[in-house]
Amino acid sequence: MSSNAQIEQLVENAIAPGKDINGVRPSKPDLEAKMQEKVKRMGELRGRPLFYNYLSSGVGRGPYVQLDDGSVKMDLINSIGVHVLGHSHPRVIAAMVKGALADLVYQGALQPGDETLAFSEKIVSLASKKSRLKHAWISTCGTMANENALKMARQKRKAARMIVTFENAFSGRSTMMAEITDNKAFKVNLPEYNEVLRLPFYKKDDPASKDKTLAILKEHVAKHGDNIGIFGFEPMLGEGGFLHADKSFFGPLLEFCKSKGIPIWMDEVQTFTRTGEFFAFETLGLGEFVDLCTIAKTALNGVTLFTDDMKPDPGLLGGTFAGTASTLRAGLEVLNILDNDGYMGANGKINQIHKEFVGMLDKLNTTTCKGLLTGAGGLGLMVAVTPFDGSKEKQTALLKALYKNGLICFGCGHDPYRVRFLIPAVMTSQDIEVARQVIEKSVLELA
What we know:
Layout: H1 3-15, H2 29-46, E1 56-61, E2 64-67, E3 72-75, H3 78-81, H4 90-100, H5 114-127, E4 135-139, H6 142-156, E5 162-166, H7 175-180, E6 196-199, H8 209-224, E7 228-233, H9 247-259, E8 264-267, H10 280-283, E9 292-295, E10 302-306, H11 325-340, H12 349-366, E11 373-379, E12 382-387, H13 392-405, E13 407-408, E14 410-412, E15 418-422, H14 429-446
Parallel strand pairs: 3-13, 5-6, 5-7, 7-8, 8-9
Antiparallel strand pairs: 1-2, 2-3, 4-10, 9-10, 11-12, 12-15, 14-15
C-alpha cells in the first residue's frame, strides 16, 4: 500500500466512528458511571472540579461531539474557539495525520521545518492584504502571542510601562496578561502592578460614548505621556460580553494614538476568522492603524504579527516550543479551507450563519421565550444573548440546562451576564434548528 493510501486509510479510520452522528442523543447508562469516576478523578488532579462534568471521547462530526458516556452534544464552544470547522473535518484530520508522521513532535525557534515556513507565509499573506503587517512569530498559545506583542512594543517605546486598554478586557492567564484582564474573579489575591490605564468601551445607548472615551484617552496621555508603551485591545470584547463597536468609535482613538507615536496592538486571539473576514481589523476597516496583531485558537497556534517598525532586537523573543508539525499543517489547512471555499466576505457562509442564528434567537425572544433572550448579537460566528434578568444565577442555570438538554456553550460578560456561542463554520440550517429546539426547551424549563 502506498503512503498516500495509508494516510487515506488512517483518516477514514479516524472519522468513521462519527459518521452516524446527526444530532444530540442521551448517554448510555453503562458508560455514565464510568465517566463520572473519571470526571471526579480529573477534578482531584487539577485541584478543582470541571465546569461541565464530562470528558470527550475523541469522536465527533461537524458541530456535534460524543462524550465519554456515549451521549452526543451540540458543541457551540469548540474548546473556547479552537475548532472553527467542527469535529472530524476530513481535510483537517488528513493534515494532522501527515504532520504526526514527522520525525519530531515540536518545531521551534532553533529547528523550524517546512510546516513553519508554509504556515507563516499563509498568515502573513492574509494579514498584509489590508494592513502593514509583514512578519509572524509563532508561539504555543494566545497568551504567549500577547506577551510577545507587549514586549515588542515596550522595547520600541524605550521601556515605557503603561498599557492602555478597555474596561472588561481579557488578554490571557499569565501574570502580565492577568493584569491587563479586567475581571476581579480571574485574579483573586494577585498583586496589582498599576501599569494598566482603562477606557470605557462603546455604549450604544449613550450618544456621548465615543466622545467620553476619547476624552479619557487624552487625559491618560496628558498624564503619562512617553511612559505609555501601547494601546492594546480586543476589537470585540470576548470574555467581556461579546460587545463590539465600529470604525466611528475606534478610528478617533487610533488616530490620536498614532499622532502620539503609541503603537496599536489588536488582540484577535478569539476574533480571528470569526467576524466574516480573516481579521476583525478588516471587518471594521482598521487595518491602516495596526502595528501588532495577535491570533490563536482557529490558527491552532499562537502568532504575533508585526510591522517592519516593530521588528524586535535579537534576544527579545525566543522559546523552546512553537507549533507541532500536526498543528501547523492542520492550521494551514483550516486557513486554506476558509480562504477558498466561500466562507469569507459579506455574503460568505460565516455571515449567513450569523444572520440565521441571531434571527433564530430573536424569534424565540418574541415568541415562545418572549422577553427571556434579549440583545442577541455579535459578529460572525461569535454570538451572545442575555438570558432572563442577566444575573449570574440565571446565566449559570441556563448553561447547565442547555448542557443537560444537549448543547454545550459558555458564559461571558457581567452586568449583564450573557450566554455565548462560538459557532462552527460548518453549521447548517438543520443544525441551527436543533440548537433552537434545545435552547427553547431549556429556557422554558427555567421560566
